[in-house]
């Protein structure tokens, strides 16, 4: 086997291993469905894969000239690897800062909360007042209930503030409560699929088929939208257990 092909094969195998370890850890820890979709991170992953798995090994195939000295070859490959590490570092930092931390139920909707959505002072307040549900560096995604505070003045302040771009209650861990405590209120907020105006007729037809495949009725109040930025999925609940049975894309 020629030097070019050997260098290309080794570089490709090493890049694939590093990429698998990093992206696999993020997927297993934070970005399982629907996290990766609602967080909209595929473009970041695409850039990292392009640089580390395609561009890097391809450049090695080009520069691995048998006529070069070992010093020259090592220098050229080191430069390529350095660029790959920069791209991998960029992707890792971006994925870490945007990692899903909570799937929240608040008022009448489900929403994704990412690490980048939380201000440091709200994190500190949550760790002080509600440490069990506050985010820590090792926290994995959790389903929680984020009700407005019982104090009417405080609740009004939060609602008005969020309406003008301020912090919403889903970004205030000090008010979070266990998911199970919010199930009675969530049950009252569920709606029928045909009551949702965010899906086209074609999307609703496809969603009805998916719900039927789950063995659940599509004409009962057993659905709720889940939002993540501008993206959304349909959460389908089993009314007997009040648990999420599926999270389905409209398209």
Give the secondary structure arrangement, pairings included.
Blueprint: H1 3-29, H2 35-39, H3 42-63, H4 70-97, E1 100-106, E2 109-114, H5 120-129, E3 142-145, H6 152-163, E4 177-178, H7 183-189, H8 201-213, E5 223-228, E6 231-238, E7 243-248
Helix pairs in contact: 1-3, 1-4, 3-4
Can you offer a commentary on this structure?
This protein has 8 helices and 7 strands. Helix 1 (3-29) runs antiparallel to helix 3, helix 1 (3-29) runs parallel beside helix 4 (70-97) and helix 3 (42-63) packs antiparallel against helix 4 (70-97). The protein has helices spanning 3-29, 35-39, 42-63, 70-97, 120-129, 152-163, 183-189, 201-213, and strands spanning 100-106, 109-114, 142-145, 177-178, 223-228, 231-238, 243-248. Helices cover 49% and strands 16% of the residues. It is elongated, with a radius of gyration of 24 Å. The chain has 3 domains: 3-97, no CATH class; 100-188, no CATH class; 190-251, no CATH class. It is α/β, with parallel strands linked by helices and 251 residues long. Strands 4-3-1-2-5-6-7 form a 7-stranded mixed sheet.
Give a quick set of tags describing it.
7 strands; 3 domains; single chain; alpha/beta; 251 residues
Could you give a short account of the major beta sheet?
Answer: 7 strands, mixed
Number of helices: 8
Report Rg. Answer: 24 Å
Share of helix, binned: 40-55%
Physical arrangement of strands within the biggest beta sheet: 4-3-1-2-5-6-7
Number of domains: 3
Write the element-wise H/E pattern from the N-terminal end onward. Answer: HHHHEEHEHEHHEEE
Q: Which ranges are low-confidence, i.e. pLDDT below 50, for 5 or more consecutive residues?
A: none
Give the DSSP E fraction (strand runs of 2 or more residues).
Answer: 15-25%
> Shape, please?
elongated
Question: What average pLDDT do the residues reach?
Answer: 92
How many angstroms does the end-to-end distance come to?
47 Å
């Amino acid at each position: 086997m020629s030097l070019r092909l050997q260098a290309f094969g080794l570089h490709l195998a090493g890049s694939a291993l590093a990429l698998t370890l990093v992206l696999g850890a993020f997927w297993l820890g934070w970005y399982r469905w629907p996290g990766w979709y609602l967080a909209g991170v595929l473009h970041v992953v695409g850039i990292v894969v392009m640089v580390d798995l395609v561009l890097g090994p391809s450049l090695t195939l080009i520069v691995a000239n048998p006529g070069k000295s070992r010093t020259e070859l090592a220098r050229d490959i080191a430069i390529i690897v350095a660029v790959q590490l920069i791209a991998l570092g960029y992707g890792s930092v971006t994925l870490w800062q945007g990692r899903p931390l909570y799937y929240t139920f608040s008022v009448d909707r489900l929403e994704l909360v990412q690490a980048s959505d939380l201000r440091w002072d709200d994190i500190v307040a949550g760790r002080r007042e509600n440490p069990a549900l506050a985010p820590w560096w090792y926290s994995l995604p959790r389903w929680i209930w984020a009700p407005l505070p019982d104090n009417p003045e405080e609740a009004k302040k939060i609602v008005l503030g969020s309406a003008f771009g301020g912090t919403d209650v889903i970004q205030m861990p000090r008010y979070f409560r266990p998911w199970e405590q919010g199930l009675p209120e969530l049950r009252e907020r569920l709606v029928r699929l045909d009551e949702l105006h965010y899906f086209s007729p074609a999307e609703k037809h496809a969603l009805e088929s998916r719900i039927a495949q789950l063995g659940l009725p599509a004409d009962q109040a057993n659905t709720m939208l889940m939002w993540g930025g501008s993206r959304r999925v349909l959460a389908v609940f089993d009314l007997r257990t009040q648990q999420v049975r599926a999270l389905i894309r409209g398209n």
